[in-house]
Specification:
Layout (H helix, E strand, L loop, with lengths): L2 H16 L2 H8 L3 H15 L4 E3 L4 E3 L1 H28 L4 E7 L7 H12 L3 E7 L13 E2 L26 H7 L14 E2 L8 E5 L4 E5 L4 E2 L1
Helix pairs in contact: 1-2, 1-3, 1-4, 2-3
């Protein structure tokens, strides 16, 4: 397959994944017009329309849905070839795609990514910052960073770091309702529950003497 065809497939697959020409262009470091031309060239090659386009939405046509898994397979093969050749040269290159919680997008990961790319200038990074649980295999990601206990899965997991969570209340709330003097006293307070990770449905308190698991009955869920 010609190299220009692989570039067109990459443009097509990225637009399909991002559901946006602008977001795909930002990911690939190209202009939206360049991606539009690449997709149009691919449509001319296959003789079928691949996207339904409107002013605020992009969706796959039936032909696009049919082509997408094949495009992923060809791009994966290209990636394997690039990695094998890079291994022979001893230089890291190509794309690294992963997802991470939104909180890591505020300072922590951008700084580390910048340092990594200074060391490996031929490596490109594509990050999805989201609190949603994404299956790396289904989303064609190299890995995912999650802040939770590992669930039963065929995926291989590694602990990156440990951390603690803390409870907070506004001074005004404590002035009106008082400070709870025990974990059990939390039952009578207006609790806020973060609903994204399942593990947060229980709050785990630990001290040197004991560990207590508290089932949260929230007043508010965000």
């Amino acid at each position: 397959m010609a190299l220009n065809m692989l570039g067109e497939l990459e443009a097509f697959a990225t637009v399909a994944r991002k559901r946006s020409f602008v977001a795909a262009a930002r990911t690939l470091g190209r202009s939206p017009s360049a991606l539009t031309r690449a997709v149009q060239a691919l449509e001319e090659s296959v003789g079928l329309k691949l996207f339904n386009r409107s002013s605020n939405a992009v969706s796959l046509t039936e032909a696009g849905e049919c082509l997408l898994p094949h495009a992923y397979k060809m791009l994966d093969l290209q990636r394997e070839v690039d990695e094998d050749l890079a291994g022979l040269s001893g230089l890291a290159s190509g794309w690294i795609r992963f997802s991470a919680p939104e909180v890591l997008g505020h300072g922590v990961l951008p700084r580390l990514i910048a340092q990594y790319c200074e060391r490996y200038p031929d490596v490109n990074i594509d990050v999805i910052f989201t609190d949603a649980i994404i299956d790396p295999a289904k989303s064609k990601l190299d890995f995912s960073i999650r802040g939770a206990f590992p669930q039963s899965s065929d995926l291989i997991g590694f602990a990156l770091w440990s951390y603690s969570r803390y409870l907070y209340a506004s001074p005004g709330y404590l002035e009106r309702n008082g400070m709870p003097d025990s974990i059990e006293a939390l039952e009578s307070h207006s609790l806020i529950l973060h609903t994204a990770p399942r593990i947060l449905k229980e709050w785990n308190f630990r001290s040197e003497e004991q560990a207590i698991s508290f089932r949260v009955h929230p007043k508010f869920r965000f």
